[in-house]
Design a protein that fits this description.
This protein has about 130 residues and is mainly α. The chain contains five helices and no strands. Helices cover about 65% and strands about 0% of the residues.
């Protein structure tokens, strides 16, 4: 499976987990801005997302002890803003959303391992 197909698979898993997490929230207010009319109807291509993630991964110091955590954060932020629009970055609940998705991914060891593999491949190919 090539990195684009793997990325697509991880995106589907993240989308599914985001939906599950959203349905468990007591109040829909934290995600209300995701469904607002300000959302861009057309998002960049998957290849553009891949380039963006690769560029951001390249900015992380290879000797940083927290490199793996930062790489996951970069990936999740990039994917979520690609999926829901850059205005998501302005949402006060964005930190909680990213943390929740990261927690959900870590709870599924197979998905977590796939994400690790994908991040290594994305960091290695530019």
């Amino acid at each position: 499976m090539d990195p684009i197909n793997r990325l697509d698979h991880v995106l589907q898993l993240i989308g599914r987990q985001m939906s599950e997490r959203a349905s468990r929230l007591d109040s829909g207010a934290k995600l209300a801005s995701l469904s607002g009319p300000a959302r861009t109807p057309r998002r960049p291509s998957l290849a553009a997302l891949k380039r963006k993630v690769q560029d951001r991964l390249a900015e992380i110091d290879p000797d940083d002890a927290r490199r793996a955590d930062k790489a996951r954060r970069v990936f999740l932020e990039s994917v979520l803003t690609w999926q829901f629009g850059d205005e998501l970055l302005l949402d006060r609940g964005f930190e909680e959303i990213v943390a929740g998705v990261q927690e959900a991914l870590q709870a599924h060891s197979q998905t977590d391992a796939r994400l690790d593999q994908l991040l290594r491949e994305l960091a290695g190919t530019r």
